[in-house]
Amino acid sequence: MPRLETLEMTIETGKRGLDRAxxxxxxxxxxxxxxxxxxxxxxxxMRLVGSPQSFPHSLTLTGPDDGFWDIxxxxxxxxxxxxxxxxxxxxxxxxxxxxxxxxxxxxxPQLLDV
Length: 114
Description:
With 114 residues, this protein is an all-beta fold. It has strands at residues 4-13, 23-26, 29-32, 35-38, 45-50, 59-61, 68-80, 86-90, 93-96, 101-102. Strands 1, 4, 5, 7, 8 and 9 form a six-stranded antiparallel beta sheet that branches. It starts with a strand and ends in a 12-residue tail after the last strand.
């Protein structure tokens, strides 16, 4: 399992925004993002950077403390210790107090053209 050096995300919020700064959890430990720019209100876009410096057995985006957070789409880039960065794109989801979103996806296999 590679060590996750940095996680960079762009999140487009839907109709219902988030009422606090977003956070993520790695291996069950909640962390704040190191950098946040943009907005997390209704129909806003934010850019987030986290530097967990850890081996992620689990990596999730946490939901709001109260209410709901509608996410239209997420683009997450993983900078890992065993190679260059890779990016995954996720579609619409609604998070709440009891719902979190899995963010950890292994690097896709390298394709070779023969």
